Amino acid sequence: MESFSDLFEQVLLLCKADAEMADVTFNLFFSDLKPVSFANDTAYLETTSDFKLDILKSKYAELMKANFQRLLGFPVEIEITVKSPKKEEEEQPKPAFQPENRDKYTFENFVVGSGNKFAYAACQRVAKDPGMIYNPLFIYGRSGLGKTHLLMATQREIIQNNPDANIIYTTSENFTNDMVSFLAQKNMEEFHNKYRSVDVLLIDDVQFLQNKMSFQEEFFHTFNALTQLNKQVILTSDRPPKEIDTLTDRLRNRFESGLLADIQPPDIETRMAIVTKKAQQYGLNLSPQIVEYIAEKLKNNIRQLEGAVKKIFAMNSLSETDPTFEMAEEAIRDVQTDNMPVGVKTEKIIEYIADFYGITPQDITSNKKNANIALARQVTVYVLREITGQTLQMIGAAIGGKNHSTVNYSISLVEKKMRNEPAFKNTVFEIINNLQE
Question: Coil, strand, or helix at residue 135?
Answer without folding.
Answer: coil
